[in-house]
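To whoever picks this up:

The nightly regression suite flagged Amidase as changed. Nothing in the input moved, so I suspect the structure step. Input below, exactly as stored in the fixture:
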Amino acid sequence: MAAALRAREISARELLELHLDRIAERNPELNAIVSLDEERARASAAQADEALAAGREPGPLHGLPFAVKDTHNVKGWRTTFGSPLLADNVPDHDDLLVERIRGAGAVLVGKTNVPEFAAGSHTFNTVFGTTLNPHDPTRSAGGSSGGAACSLAAGMTPLADGSDMGGSLRNPASFCGVVGLRPSLGRVPGWPAANQWESLSVGGPMARNVADVALLLSVLAGPDPRVPLALGEPGATFAPPADGSLGGSLAGLRVGFSLDLGGAFEVDSEVAAVTESAAAVLSGAGARVTAAHPDLGEADDTFRTLRAWHFQATFGALLAEHPDQFKQALADNIRAGEHLTGADVARAYIQRTTLAERMRLFFVDHDVLVLPVSQVPPFASDAEFPTAINGRPMTTYLDWMRSAYLITVTGCPAISVPAGRTRDGLPVGVQIVAPHGAERRLLQVAEAFEREVGADARP
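Regenerated output under the current build:
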């Protein structure tokens, strides 16, 4: 699409109308895009066409329709965070991520739906309702970037942004059959931010294939003087070549494969089957696949402690002022942070350092780690979360998300790539993890895997 726009084979106006038609067709049922503003989008598309006609150099996203995740501030555009407390919020600034998307020439059309304050891997809120899975609308689209993943899979947008604390880029990508990348800490800088010195959450790209993820990463990544811990490589480092191929190969790749990180979590039998088939694909393409995983024994305590601490610091005062305006699961997570001590938080940070060092050592002997993205396939949309896996009860809201959030606290980049389907045809992704800072290599591996599984992995 970007190439066709630059070659004037299609105008930004025409491309926008095609997407608006698709939105009109699918969105009323799926509820992926919220705060749609067709008039403003048409004005932006007209400006894009006029700029190209005037000879201005087009940006990498020139003329591409784009809906921004509803937890990212867009100046002058309703941004609710999925909370009734912010139902009428209209920011006076763009987040840095949005600055870069606009600056690259994208045509904004609206926002993508999220769970309340992006807390959770099922997208529903009292402002806009529930986002449904485009492959089976009785199922969840995942979260918290569920609206983004759904809009991609349904053809309503060509690219999408998201954010990921405990799996919010990876889980919905798996549920909807698209690609989602959680970058290394520091790769996609965030501004403004309450805490520039430490975070569990990162922004990142989603798309229908790996090369398109690389295209969007090339826009989102790169240093910014307002973000002191941003990694220094320019975003253009990750841009795909003109032919779209990232040049990856699986031959000789050293793959550490684990279904459950040594019994750290339960995995649905159908998800396990697809994940094991992915290992076979890798081996068949020449990779050296061995059963291996790093010791992430402290990761569960580390994530839960830091998540509760972040939630309490961010939302504690708001919850105290509006105790009835938060969903129960989020309120409980915020209150869990009230009882943490300085020693608890210090322990979590020390553990996080230990976990990062173990990952570094693991990647001396392995190029990537492969494991499930989500422990379950897409579950019923009227359930808040799966309460059991293979008959084993999930005692807390977070239990079914361990396969994603245990990787979060290592700080390493991880990508969800479609790997297969359940017997009912529901998408299942596989998670590929690389050393911190190795996004280029990770994208090459993911693209090579994507090429090997081919259409068989697509819903």
